[in-house]
Amino acid sequence: MKNPYISTTLFLSIFFFSIFARYRYVSVHNHYYPDYEKTDMSKYTGRINFSDKEYNDILRQTGLGRAAVNSLKCRPDFADILMRFQSNMFKPVRYAQAGYFFATRRQYAVDNSGNETQAYEFAPLENGYVLITKSSQTLGVRNGHAALVVDAENGAILESGPVGISSHLSDISVWRTYPTMIMLKLKDEIIQKNTSLISNLINDALTNLINIPYKIVPGILSQKRNFPDILAASNCSHLIWAAFRRQGLDIDSDRGPIVTPRHIAKSGIFETVQLYGVNPDNIWGC
């Protein structure tokens, strides 16, 4: 007869070992360093027109997408900006972890003294931009975090969480401490079809999506798609999904019962504005 104590112990040992192994794997891959050589950014001095290949080169070297490049390219110090972002892209970053709920931890960049610090700078911000980070884990699973830029001029974002904290406005500066960041915008063809889309998105979010209670997994025990006019509960990614869904856009890439930061990052209706600590060729790959 099998010993139930041994069976239970074996099961728990395998379970916790798998969690530990997954946690270590995800932690090691928490910040992406380019595995290719730097190129000379001075070649773009005085340029305002770029081929698709050149836009891709700039993205891989600096983390700046087409929209960011177009907003910066007429500045007289454009080449210097590219070199500065390139330096951040290739520069090693030290980071630490802090727990804020049970087995959930977030990563943040630290200086040589171990103090939390900002690791990079933002491309020019616009209302309606979505921020995603992979630098949040629960039981070793990279669940990530998401936010919506609602006041670019003053650096205000809408976000939900951590657990126990209702949706609220925050200062965007804390995002510069994450060792990973993805900044997204709706594709131009979507915005051009509805020129009031972004203003409607922001006004509705500020009016109806603040002080929504936090729920870890909204959508599993409720109908995600048939949400009421006033959300009963939400989490970080569900809140951002709801903001766009209320404007007729579904940013959940797999259209499943729940939405995660990964699903938003892989949505086909966005384009990349900026990346930091993320592989440009596979923005959610470990």
Quick gist of this model?
The chain has 286 residues and is α+β, with helices and mostly antiparallel strands. The protein has helices at 4-28, 52-62, 66-72, 78-90, 188-193, 197-208, 236-245, 261-265; strands at 94-101, 104-110, 130-133, 136-138, 141-142, 145-151, 156-159, 168-171, 181-186, 270-276.
The ordered H/E elements are HHHHEEEEEEEEEHHHHE
CATH class of the domain at 124-286: Alpha Beta
Oligomer: single chain
Number of helices: 8
Return the structural class. Answer: alpha+beta
Estimate the strand proportion: 15-25%
The CATH superfamily of the domain at 124-286 is known as endopeptidase domain like (from Nostoc punctiforme)
Report helical residue fraction.
Answer: 25-40%
Total beta strand runs: 10
What is the fold-level CATH name, i.e. the topology of the domain at 124-286?
endopeptidase fold (from Nostoc punctiforme)
> What is the straight-line distance between the termini?
43 Å
Query: Uncertain spans, ≥5 residues at pLDDT below 50?
Result: 10-28
Residue-averaged pLDDT: 84
3D architecture notes:
It is a single chain. By secondary structure, the protein is of the alpha+beta class. Helices cover 31% and strands 18% of the residues. It has helices at 4-28, 52-62, 66-72, 78-90, 188-193, 197-208, 236-245, 261-265, and strands at residues 94-101, 104-110, 130-133, 136-138, 141-142, 145-151, 156-159, 168-171, 181-186, 270-276. The strands form two sheets. Strands 8-7-6-3-9-10 form a six-stranded antiparallel sheet. A hairpin with a 2-residue loop joins strand 1 and strand 2 (104-110). The longest helix has 25 residues, at 4-28. The N and C termini lie far apart (43 Å).
